[in-house]
Amino acid sequence: MPSNTRRQPARVHCRPGWFLVLTRPVPAVVPAALLLLLLSAGPMLPVGLPWLSVSDAVAAAAPAECAPEIPAAAVAAAEAAGRELGPDRGARIFAGREGVSFAGRSVAVEGICRQVSGRSAAMRTLISDLGARETETTIELELSGDVLFAFDRAELREEARSTLDDIAAVIAEQKRPRVEITGHTDAKGSAAYNLDLSERRAAAVRDDLVGRGLAAELFIVRGCGETDPRAPNTNPDGSDNAAGRKANRRVELVIFK
Amino acid sequence: MSGTRRVRSCFPFLLLLMLLAAPLYAGAPLQTQDATQWSDIAVDLLSVQTKNGVLTMRFIYRNNGERTLEPEFGYGDFHLIDEVNQKKYFPLKDADGIFIAGPIHSDYRGGTFKDRIPSGGRKGVWIKFPVPADNPESITVSVPGVFPFEDVALPH
Questions:
Q1: Closest Cα of chain B to A239: distance in Å?
Q2: pLDDT of B55-64, one tens digit each?
Q3: How far is CA B79 from the centre of its chain?
Q4: Most buried of A25, A179, B71, B141, CB within 10 angstroms?
């Protein structure tokens, strides 16, 4: 074998000015070593290059169905919503000792040191007194129709005012509230009449809360008539179930926090 | 050319290759947390971007288990917590009161996520918040059913 055909060691010459010239075939071990070096050094570079953005890299690495794409309309809607929030950006202060005034009363908000998502003791008591069920995102309560209204009427009783005072305070305490009010009746009378009565009762509750200074836009009002009973309106023998009908006459409120 | 000199002269070349490889690492999650609500689900916080007063977060829900899972949560349960300034921020809503997030399965409670993730599968989730008012360096991101993402740096 002639000496000039023997395999020569690879030579990599780097000239000034970042130019690279390979003068011999490079053994496989060299690119492998370079790849290893890149794999170890890559995480030290926290940002991508201008011509390949983060989202491009993610989209390339992830299957198409899981790359979270954001519609352009959402971007515009978010910017509009952000502008409406004002300088506090919709923040809720979760600790502090300043008084917070709502619905004509002033309640001292106690500092919450251990639980960031907690609320003031006064508000917890109020919600408890209303018999409301609180979840992470909602406060749900049910008001007896007989407490709020006289039989077959859609005008609020005077006795209901203090309860609605408390409800207004709970709503006002939420940073970005939305309230669904749903009226229900028993099955006495025609279905159409009951549907109308349930709507008027729900609207009466809404109107009273708006009259206390809450924005009308916060409320969604609807009536279900007799279609969603809590209890049977009649006993198994067909006789009238007064207790069941009483339970069915109600107004439900869901306050979204 | 001596061995030392040869290595030194190749350094710019290696540096260039490292820079070219950087985008491959840009897709790595900022942080990953396990779910508290669903076993075998892990959630990657993929990116945090701010633009025009809006903070956008992208997540990937990964099913690391052997069976199909169907996580469900409300977008209203996402929060940002600025612990330094003691403020809590909520997702932005559109004019219809629906959270600006996706994908949205139903409008219930302002928008919910519900989707089947097969074993080994991934689903992307995005959500938009207002940029916190006091320009905090970092925030805690509270995600429903998942351990909190703490000390998430905010781009300024």
A1: 38
A2: 999 999 999 9
A3: 13
A4: B141
Residue A149: name the closest of A138, A163, A168 by CA: A163
- CB B86 to CB A138 under 8 A? no
Interface test with A, best of B18, B80, B83 (most A CBs within 10 A): B18
- B28-153, CATH topology level: Immunoglobulin-like (2.60.40)
Task: State residue B5's pLDDT score.
Answer: 63
Is A190 a residue whose pLDDT tops 70? yes
Region of poorest pLDDT, from A112-126, A210-224, B41-55: A112-126
Q: Which residue is it, tokens 């890149």?
A: A38
The answer, yes or no, to whether residue B125 has pLDDT greater than 90, is: yes
Probe site for chain B from A58, A179, A180 (most B CB atoms < 10 A) = A58
Structure tokens at A244: 């069941």
Tokens at residue B52, please?
């025009």
Question: In chain A, which among 23-42 make CB contacts under 8 A with chain B?
Answer: 34, 37-38, 41-42
pTM for this predicted structure: 0.46
CATH of the domain at A143: 3.30.1330.60
Number of domains comprising chain A: 1
- Give the pLDDT confidence score for residue A48 in this predicted structure: 39
The predicted model gives B82-100 an average pLDDT of 90
Does A240 contact chain B (CB < 8 Å)? no
A82 Cα to chain B: minimum distance (Å)? 6
Burial of A243 (0-12, 13-18, 19+ CB in 10 A): exposed
State the average pLDDT over residues A135-145.
89
Of B11, B100, B124, the CB nearest to A74: B100
Q: How far is CA B2 from CA A11, A13, B5, B11, B110, in A?
A: 12, 12, 5, 15, 69
